[in-house]
What we know:
The complex is a heterodimer of chains A (204) and B (191). Chain A is mostly helical. Helix content of chain A is 56%, strand content 5%. A two-stranded antiparallel sheet of chain A has the order 1-2. In chain A, α4 (89-103) packs across α9, α5 (106-120) packs antiparallel against α6 (123-132) and α7 packs across α9 (174-197). Chain B has 191 residues and is mainly alpha-helical. Chain B has one domain (4-188). The model of chain B has no long low-confidence stretch (mean pLDDT 97). Chains A and B meet through α3, α8 and α9 of A and α2, α3, α7, α8 and α9 of B.
Amino acid sequence: MSTKATEKTLTPPPxxxxxxxxxxxxxxxxxxxxxxxxxxxxxxxxxLVDAAxxxxxxxxxxxxxxxxxxxxxxxxxxxxxxxxAGLPRAERELAAAATSRLNGCIYxxxxxxxxxxxxxxxxDDVQRLLDEGVDxxxxxxxxxxxAASVALTTIPMTFGKEHxxxxxxxxxxxxxxxxxxxxxSFFNWANRxxxxxGVPATQG
Amino acid sequence: xxxxIDTLVGIAPGSKLDxxxxxxxxxxxxxxxxYASLFEPKDSGSVTADERHAIAAFVAGLHGEPKTGSFYxxxxxASLGAAVAAEVAAAKSKGPYGHFPKGPLSAEDAxxxxxxxxxxxxxxxxxxxxxxxxxxxxxxxxxRDASAPxxxxxxxxxxSTTDIVTISQLVSFLSYQIRVVAGLSTLASTx
Lengths: 204, 191
């Protein structure tokens, strides 16, 4: 048995929590102590993959289990950034934003709504998804992508052949559908970490 | 070792889905590495193999995805497996539900239960695992209700900050793996 005293959660400094979904840049404040930079070994640092992430309390907290952080990050990067074939980047980001909207992760939704808007140039449609939620009117292709993301995210999961057929009708091939499954599924991973280990805050 | 997602979906070498997964070879490799780091860690620290598999079997059971559920349940000793199955049966719900920060989104609040382990379950699971299961239920069904006090309950039950990072990754990874298995199985059925 450990003789160590029970640890305590952190109380974030005074901040304003966002109360709507937004494309604005947000901060994130941890409820658990991230690693101090000075305490990080070479293994912890390489687990960040991007060296700049040492400034992020979120990644320094996850670095406490470096093997899973590194594997998580490399999974994430291939699902979203691999440019070969499959679903266009904008629509992988749309799936991430829709999943985050449904689960209620205001921080994740802000990041991926910004990416979806940047890559698609459809700022109004992305904002409508944030404002109105996953039933927002978009266009048939985007609504099919959002509906598939929702069907993969709800419990019980309802993703069925009818979703695959609807995606094919709007032009997604099998590789694109597999990318959508990867993107929506991955955000069920990311949302749960972001939502449960800390709190978003408005900047400035 | 064999790729767990391929095994659970039933992706045969040379099949169409095998070729599609090969186009995202880094994601495939590192999803497997995530599994390995959580369930075959080089250093399991203070989260035991039974605890890891019990939490995973609970998450998979709550999702009702049969292939993933049996995979993790099969790794548990019989008495622990029976306790997990009993808690799954009592804990099943529909998600996601929960509260938003007070404001315009409050109109979308979907309140739901904060689930507690049964008295019988608490005896078999012990206080550490019982606290982890209660946190896991929140993460699975209503993650937007998360708060610092729910993490403090885990610390009070004897988990360390680093243990909580591992458990959070485990539940969240399962939330990914289960959906990939379900999604790719559906896609495979149409090929």
